[in-house]
Automatic annotation (TrEMBL):
It comes from Aquilegia coerulea (Rocky mountain columbine). This is DUF538 domain-containing protein. The keyword Transmembrane helix applies. It comes from the Eukaryota. Keywords: Membrane, Transmembrane, Transmembrane helix. The keyword Transmembrane helix applies. The chain crosses the membrane at residues 48-71.
Length: 226
């Protein structure tokens, strides 16, 4: 009984196919090669072996085609990719307004399993909402339904102090309010101002606006006294 010959040649051919075939052609090539082996194999044990091998490769191909839980997007490389999910769309999917981040995001990563994300900006910048908000070059946090926790890289200005924003959350079901957790202070703000993605001021423009003396008013929002 011949256990070598054509069978050995077939196995060598199979090895070359697996290692040299392009990924998008791998499934079809493996299927054709294995069907040929099953028809020409001289023993039942050999056929059983290749059946098991076929199943193993089939399930590995399924695992290979499942997308990674980590989403990454580089705007410099994917400007023409309409199927790419933007970081602003991810915010809205989690019930948060898209305007929490400026329009200058150049890259981000997001792990759907842990909720951890990283957002990269070209440089630090500022947006004026009810308060002046500072965005660092790198922003990190944990995204959950209706909230961002473990937040780093966003600050708000109170008088001459810059205060870290530790958490941002909204009501569930949604209301007209959004909440910034600054230390032990939980400040309620109007959510409408965060529904639109805003452009950021660079350092020079932002610092020039910081030097302006605010007009005294009883309605001036405060973080530390409320």
């Amino acid at each position: 009984m011949d256990y070598g010959g054509s069978s050995a040649l077939n196995i060598n051919t199979f090895y070359i196919t697996v290692h040299q075939t392009k990924p998008n052609q791998l499934s079809l090539s493996l299927s054709l090669q294995l069907q040929y082996f099953l028809l020409t194999s001289p023993t039942i044990m050999t056929r059983v072996f290749f059946n098991l091998l076929y199943l193993s490769i089939f399930f590995n191909l399924i695992l290979f085609t499942i997308s990674s839980p980590i989403i990454s997007n580089n705007n410099n490389n994917n400007n023409n990719d309409n199927t790419t999910t933007t970081v602003y769309e991810i915010l809205t999917l989690y019930g948060l307004p898209s305007g929490l981040l400026p329009d200058s995001v150049i890259d981000y990563t997001f792990d759907k399993e842990t909720g951890k994300f990283t957002v990269d900006l070209p440089n630090p910048c500022y947006i004026h909402f009810d308060y002046l908000v500072y965005y660092d070059k790198k922003i990190t946090g944990t995204l959950k339904i209706g909230s961002i926790t473990n937040l780093n890289g966003i600050e708000v200005k109170k008088l001459f102090l810059w205060l870290d924003v530790d958490e941002i959350r909204v009501d569930l079901p949604p209301s007209d309010s959004i909440y910034f957790q600054v230390g032990f202070i939980n400040k309620k703000l109007d959510v409408d101002q965060f529904q639109t993605v805003h452009s950021c001021k660079d350092n020079g423009l932002a610092f020039s606006s910081l030097l302006k003396v605010p007009t005294p008013t009883r309605e001036l929002p405060t973080l530390l006294t409320e």
